[in-house]
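Worked example
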Amino acid sequence: MRLLFIRHAEPDYSTDSLTEKGRREAALLAKTAPSLRMDHCFVSPLGRAQETAAYCLEAVGKTAVTLDWLEEFDAPVDLNRTPELLAAYPNVKPEAVPPSGLPAENGKEAGNPRTGGSVLISSGSNAQGSPYGEAGERTQSVQPGKYRPRRPWDVGQIYYAEHPELMDPFRWRESEIYLKSKMPSRYDEVVSAFDALLASYGYVHENGLYRVERESRETLVFFCHFGVTCVLLSALWNTSPFFLWQNLAMLPSSVTELATEERVQGAALFRAQRIGDLSHLYAGNEPASFACRFCEVYSDFSVETGRH
């Protein structure tokens, strides 16, 4: 069995769609779609993933099943309730909070089905001029004075160095970031849904491997997001999602491919053949998007490459 994780093309977070560049990226990706062997396709409910998928699906004459658990992984840390975690988020300062409509416990703005309820509030814009925060959250100028909810993968390098449990395949579940966010329930919810899907195709997650109930050469394609892809990879590889969030940068429209290996009959693992592949962009002379990266050197805080 093969798995393809395709990140949405460059997003316009203010409309939960693609930028003009993102549409060029999606069109170039679609040119490769016939060679991807897209047997069964699944897509996040968020607009940027849906739009990216539409290009490929049209190219091969297929449809996709929308799965709510494929939306971007949302398990916010509320720094207003856990100020002891401020050290994990460098350069974070109190920002804006809405006068109403943002429940403090989950950081979701009410009444926004377009983004699946994962829209967060802050003031101003990010370094790229987007009215979204660094993880793609919609911003809104309102009353200042509170920390906006933070995504668990926005943790700074120094905090990682001081908390090696985040990188441990088992002890990451003992970390403060995990326990004091919404991760305990959300992570297991997403992974359980993913495991159930793989089991329906004959691969049952068991004792750190996948028991093969029936062999398959089919390809499952997931059009989704960086954060949730790392969660799914952590489940496949029995490792910490923090390790992947910190060390991988799968850029917009990139393709990550895994295939099963069954060296002993009935026991399979999923091994990566490519991670964050952008060869379709290189073939079309389209530069990679900077989205999801941070500045290469700290002094370079420009519109194109500037994000601390």
Notes: The first strand starts at residue 2 and ends at 7. The two ends are 39 Å apart (CA to CA). The helical segments are 20-32, 47-60, 157-162, 176-179, 183-200, 226-237, 241-247, 279-283.
